[in-house]
Amino acid sequence: MPHSANAYAAFDKTTPLGPTTITRRDPGPTDVQIDIQYCGVCHSDLHTARSEWPGTVYPCVPGHEILGTVRAVGDAVTKFKVGDTAAVGCLVDSCRTCESCKAGLEQYCDVFGFVMTYNSPDKHLPGQMTYGGYSTSITVTEDFVLKVPANLDPAAAAPLLCAGITTYSPLRHWGAGPGKKVGIVGLGGLGHMGVKFSRAFGAETVLFTTSASKVEDGKRLGAHQVVISKDPEAMQQHMRSFDLIINTVAASHDLDPFVNLLKRDGTMVLVGAPEHAHPSPSVMGMIFGRRSIAGSLIGGLPETQEMLDFCGKHDIVCDIELIKAQQINEAYERMLKSDVKYRFVIDISSMK
Question: By residue range, what is the domain housing residue 265?
Fold first, then answer.
């Protein structure tokens, strides 16, 4: 039988989020029911809640950086037991049979696309959309639940489920490591994790920011150098020197200044999803260096678990500001001003 959970939801694209009650399924044979303790606040939540991306169905309960305690498990569950710490990221199901899913790349599911943690049709509760982590409980099939190393602070680990894996995945895929020079564009929720991971991988790590006030913080987080991207002379010093650049900026901007920093065969990977398209990059800047612009989307379940284990080994978590659920609308406004270092996390106990 379904059960109810407290939640915070958007009811339309302009009204502030507010408290509500939602329906969750009780665990089936392969399900894990989690009492949510913490949920990170991603910029995607804001985009979706305000219909800045198409397809929002209201009421919408955002949240896909979820960490909590296992309350119940189905009879066939083998990886989790009651009392375990568990996490859920951006996806809660996929077709599981296509080439991408079989490769552990469920985020690129070729059949119907993955089932998002929120704002996807819920096949378990027909007629309802999936609801995310701004809630007291969630039930997810075991294969899409992740283990969290015990040494990590749980509140600060929650945003690893999106901000963490979104930067970890391209750094791993494009081979960041010793002997490589890696640039991270933007110092926000994603960018600060990109700096931490790039440094932990052993790469020469350079942060690009438009804000001089972030120079010292960038170095504290692990950047070997911090470059003010609006300074042409500072940019000129790094021309044709980067193996890889991870661009985390979620606002439309000119990509050419960063393309020109790439070595021959270098790649800039876009992980920020702007509301409006970037201006078209110069073809000349790409063909004269055989450079590439690529994209990357979160990570599959095996790589996300690998990332969490890596964080446990290297003691890496997000820099967070813990808030109550009742502060979510203020948090959204502050996010628009980049007034957070570097991720809001909701203390879900405030909903009880």
Answer: 163-295
272 alpha carbon, distance to own chain's centre: 10
Q: Is 276 exposed, middle or buried (0-12, 13-18, 19+ CB in 10 A)?
A: exposed
Helix (H, G, I), strand (E, B) or coil at 25: coil
Tell me the C-alpha to C-alpha distance, in Å, between residue 274 and each of 106, 162, 209, 252, 253.
Answer: 23, 16, 17, 6, 9
pTM (global) more than 0.90: yes
pLDDT tens digit sequence for 147-193 = 999 999 999 999 999 999 999 999 999 999 999 999 999 999 999 99
Q: Are residues 111 and 194 both part of a single domain?
A: no
* DSSP-derived pairing of the beta strands 343-347 and 137-141: unpaired
- Within 31-180, where are the H helices? 43-49, 99-102, 154-157, 163-173
CATH number of the domain that residue 275 is part of: 3.40.50.720
Per the structure, the count of domains in the chain is 2
Question: Which of 320-334 are b and which e, b meaning 16 or more Cβ less than 10 Å from the residue's Cβ?
Answer: bbebebebbeebbeb
